[in-house]
Design brief:
single chain; 236 residues; mainly alpha; Arc Repressor Mutant, subunit A; 11 helices; 0% strand
């Protein structure tokens, strides 16, 4: 079941109010006071709906009506009442003399909502706004982009400490497991062979007891001849 209409709308006037209609409504209410709005049109001699008379009086004709934007104190009161009552504008308007529910609602949507958003407050829940996921991702990506830009303009430097150092005994141990050297071969790897007797000796003894003649082959004899010739020159 729907709500019963306030009056029969057959033959009633619609559209903007005229000055004569405003005068009739003002004179009736000032002389008789506010009564049942359904009976006001007949008693005031108006061909209007009771709802239309009520809205015309409350929003435009009542003498205590305030014009203009809401003040700061009124805005604070509206925010406080909205946090408790929600969008019950008529109830909120009852706490602000001279202000209409429609005026307060329009001011809320056009001014107060934007102010609350700038302050970081949700206009519905009146709680601080939470940052969105996109903003968090952008904040996390900014430092990473800065690091990438810095690395692009800088040269890569290698430290000496990063290169592993090979000890002499490691070389000798690796050589002991390899085959003998052939000077005529074209391979890029050089292989040395050590006797089993020299493996347990200190590094210096291993180097002295190593068979360098077989290692260098013909080049060893050639180098010895050069050394003998040079020494004979110095002796002379």
């Amino acid at each position: 079941m729907g709500r019963k209409p306030c009056c029969d709308k057959v033959g009633l006037k619609k559209g903007p109010w005229t000055i004569e209609e405003d005068k009739k409504l003002i004179n009736f209410i000032l002389n008789n006071g506010q009564c049942c709005w359904r009976a006001v049109p007949k008693l005031a001699g108006l061909l209007r709906c009771g709802k239309s008379c009520r809205l015309r009086w409350i929003n435009y004709l009542r003498p205590d009506l305030k014009r203009g934007l809401l003040s700061e104190t009124e805005e604070k009161l509206v925010i406080q009442l909205h946090s408790q009552l929600g969008n019950r504008w008529s109830k909120i308007a009852s706490y602000l003399p001279g202000r209409t529910d429609n005026e307060i609602k329009n001011h809320w949507n056009t001014h107060i909502k934007k102010k609350l958003k700038k302050m970081g407050i949700d206009a519905v829940t009146h709680k601080p706004l939470l940052p969105s996921m996109n903003e968090d991702q952008q904040l996390n990506e900014q430092p990473q982009k800065q690091k990438m830009d810095e690395n692009d303009g800088s040269e890569i430097e290698f430290g000496i400490d990063e290169v592993p150092l090979i000890q002499p005994h490691e070389i000798l141990n690796s050589l002991s497991s390899s085959s003998s050297y052939s000077p005529s071969s074209s391979s890029s790897t050089t292989c040395l062979s050590l006797n089993n007797k020299t493996l347990g000796q200190p590094i210096d003894d291993q180097l002295l007891s190593f068979d360098w003649e077989n290692f260098w082959g013909d080049d060893y004899n050639f180098s010895l001849d050069l050394l003998i010739d040079e020494n004979s020159l110095f002796e002379k």
